[in-house]
Amino acid sequence: xxxxxxxxxxxxxxxxxxxxxxxxxxxxxxxxxxxxxxxxxxxxxxxxxxxxxxxxxxxxxxxxxxxxxxxxxxxxxxxxxxxxxxxxxxxxxxxxxxxxxxxxxxxxxxxxxxxxxxxxxxxxxxxxxxxxxxxxxxxxxxxxxxxxxxxxxxxxxxxxxxxxxxxxxxxxxxxxxxxxxxxxxxxxxxxxxxxxxxxxxxxxxxxxxxxxxxxxxxxxxxxxxxxxxxxxxxxxxxxxxxxxxxxxxxxxxxxxxxxxxxxxxxxxxxxxxxxxxxxxxxxxxxxxxxxxxxxxxxxxxxxxxxxxxxxxxxxxxxxxxxxxxxxxxxxxxxxxxxxxxxxxxxxxxxxxxxxxxxxxxxxxxxxxxxxxxxxxxxxxxxxxxxxxxxxxxxxxxxxxxxxxxxxxxxxxxxxxxxxxxxxxxxxxxxxxxxxxxxxxxxxxxxxxxxxxxxxxxxxxxxxxxxxxxxxxxxxxxxxxxxxxxxxxxxxxxxxxxxxxxxxxxxxxxxxxxxxxxxxxxxxxxxxxxxxxxxxxxxxxxxxxxxxxxxxxxxxxxxxxxxxxxxxxxxxxxxxxxxxxxxxxxxxxxxxxxxxxxxxxxxxxxxxxxxxxxxxxx
Length: 617
Ligand SMILES: [Zn+2]
Prior knowledge:
- Helix content is 33%, strand content 24%.
- It contains 17 helices and 29 strands.
- Helix 3 (226-247) links the parallel strand 17 and strand 18.
- It is globular, with a radius of gyration of 29 Å.
- Zinc ion (ZN) binds at residues 274, 300, 304, 334, 337.
């Protein structure tokens, strides 16, 4: 018996070995191999080689992406590619044709195509590629070409680092045995894996969950001190703990690790971008002066590891790298993340009640006064992301009258939902909702729809009518939640910032010898708008007096809402006269009860603690 067992075991073992060797050979043969070097980094160039093997005899279609995960406008990354050459396995040059501005077709190959090209990149942020003498921040869609039909193949990328510079590689890609070599199981993961190359400072810590260790890394490119890095890492730790407390657990990171890729330097552009197991956070502000601002981005992006990366709207699956991706759920994916990004800072104790309230007041005021809210619901605002999210166009737009960012809109919907749950349902909060959405959709990575979110709210509250009304009024509809009564629970008084003050509407003026020129868009429905005045017009006189920096405020303060002003103005070179009926200054503010001399009851104190206090202690 032992003998038989032994020979069977050997047979089994060799069979297993054969199967393993055979399949790994296939994988190796099919693996797409990239190599990137930075010999001309001072001039913002990288040299990239790609090897495609085991190709069918069709022409190989190679493309540069036009979109980048988490960024919704189209970007023609192909414009930064030049000196492209394609060769076969015998190093013979191949013919390349251009069917579109972002595609290269390579015909006549022998099953192998070796592609080389030069890439220019001088914007280090969460979308583009920035290469310079100090470091490189690489977003993969902006950096690496890929081929149609080979999206499922595994990928290996090798970073050839400049000699004597102490550069290292930080990324969510899987580290391989060969130095500076990393892999991705397929194209979607590869393109979602930004990489920082440079002499960064590393801090890392372990979190044990259910017997499993998860590593959190902070790779920090900055000019600051080691002590600043330590202090900042301790702040990031607090954010991680508080967010974990919201969901009850960290996500399963693909390779057991989550990496904050932070670059705080004068040579980056401020940004934050979420990915499955990492985030790129860039800021021109150093930790010495702006640690808390930078932490705000960290907090927002880390929350995305649950909300949008794993709690994923169906509308974004799979992400299309060649087209604009439209989602009606960004009020949730971005807006609720914005809400928690700020709330978590309060829960860490790094932001005071007063600071949190000021921020809330500014965000709520902006949302309440946005004229665009009359035109589009939060869902419809989300669908406009491809036109606004880092979208650049030269023609003027009417966005100040038609648009409200789904970040702000969704942030304030989250506030309304959190406070409504706390008001209407004993012991329920938005944390409970997020946790249930996580359990139902995020943990299993089942993409959700709007209907799923609505049903889940009904399930949580045991009241589908509440859920339906909330969704149809404030998310799909254009109604405003009762913020005044909701905020009162927390001892926060929502009131007019300048009660009884007459106003021409929110407008920025530039005063000169001629008069006051309107510098900002004139908002629809405002007194100036109704009087036919437009951005660029110059107010020559108000009730006979030339407006100046000194007298303008006084001119309005003497008046009451409803009073009429006689205005002479110049519009496109023509002098005109109009009468403007003054409106009420609509700016809103939130004042704490203690600031307003009102009583802060024990109930208010415990409400604030439950809402804004630590959950991880
Ligand atoms: Zn975001």
